[in-house]
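haha ok so turns out i had the wrong file open the whole time. this is the CORRECT one, sorry everyone. sequence first:
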Amino acid sequence: MKPPKGFIYFLILAQALIILGHYAVYSALMAFFPALAAHHTVWLAVLMLLSVSFLAMTILSFRYKSAWLRPFYILAAVWLPMFFYFLLASLLAIIILWIWPPGSGIVPGIIFALAVLACIYGLINARVSRVVPVNVSLPNLPPAWKGKTAVMVSDLHLGHVLRDGFARKIINDINALKPEIVFLPGDFFDGVKTDFNHLAGLFKQVKSVRGIYYVTGNHEQIAGYEICEQAVAAAGMHILENKMADINGLQIAGLAYYAETKETPERIINLLASMNLDPAKPTILLKHVPNHVSAIAKTGVSLQLSGHTHLGQVWPFRFITKRVYKGFDYGLKQLGNFQIYTSSGAGTWGPPMRVFTRSEIVKIVFE
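then structure:
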């Protein structure tokens, strides 16, 4: 699939800004730590190489799944937020030293050390998945579903970084909750070229009474819907592509991600109407992105389950997701009789790092 020109122009602009940012970090390091100046040419060369590493490794990862590529991809992914925090550290050090010049001997060292500690914390924190309990009351819920547990796991991003070990840990965590049903609302795969059948096949070990229900996300679009859906279907998961399944009186509807690029509130309403949902029964909607919430709230859907936002994944981007998704970027929210839960996700995209956000598995108990 050939990327649109607008996306290519965006990448060029973003890469140019990243290179400029790396040069700014280089200049700050030379100014704050004179001992490094003896090898300034080496430092400049290393930082310029790092500045293009993530884009280069990402492009290669879309085409190849060789074992040699994985450590380089991980290194580039880890460096990206480190660069960002080093850039913030440089700006903060400049501001503090402008206000308090006597601090020139110690302030930069402390600030850059804090930046490194934030990254180390982020790497450790991202590997710790928390179970988040949520009690949900659905109108007209059949007695057979009352007190039962559903598990929602979004944004696993299985690929080069998160693979077998991570998947098996998530599977064990899901099974420990003894779910009646499991929901995977998109970005099961990361989008890179990988062994799709093997990774999806691991989830045959999930013990769910009613099975696993899945919709696509934007990273399945990157990888290719067909290959992702074939792997998911082969693993025994139920794919909801703009359709509904009635499970013992509980309607599970799903919107495929490819509609996201074209969707309008009117299109979503029409798609949901085409599923012939029974208004006398509760409906759970799986939709990767938590947008067009006001329109969906008018359709009779009881509960929407979404992911995508990662809650920004690393600070301070959670403030951006909150603004972009109008407050529906995380947690359980309500509009009249309509409820929506947006998860911060179980996995990570790009850097395997979370700073002041958490990886989560959502345990939903129906009341």
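The chain has a mean pLDDT of 93.
again sry for the mixup
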